[in-house]
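FIELD: query
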Amino acid sequence: MDETDVPAQRAQARQDARIPQADVDQGRPGGHPGPSREGAAAALRVTSGPGSRRGVEPVHSRTTFAELRTGATRGRNGPLTVAFVAHPEWDRSQVAYAVNRRVGNAVTRNLLRRRLRSIIVERAPDLPVGAYVVRGGEEAPALTFDQLKVAMSQALDQATRRSAARAAR
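FIELD: result
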């Protein structure tokens, strides 16, 4: 074993090594806009926001949900139930979808919800303005899209017709 001499004095201090700060982005310099792009400007949104579905937007208000729970007229056909409260002072309808876990797994429920939404959007120009809750039962995923359309149309007609009859009294 060879021993080496280790000096007892400390080596002369050198300039500290530069260590970047943890919260500083070491990428591009800040405020640099990047190269200019040619062509048409990119679209900011695909749709124009809530209500862009031709007169339909989601229900957000607790009071609207309370109205739908207590004072709504209902229509039912097969596995679909529609609750409706008229609001002629609104500029567009509001719709909520209720699909229970008994209907199936998340994929099945989401597929049913998208189908129901598509049918409502298609029917929206002909529907009275108000709040709707569309409920899909356990048998709803087994129906074809055309069968769902027929069931939805009949349930919507029942609910809106009963509402008009109630208002006429």
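FIELD: remark
Confidence is low (pLDDT under 50) at residues 44-53.
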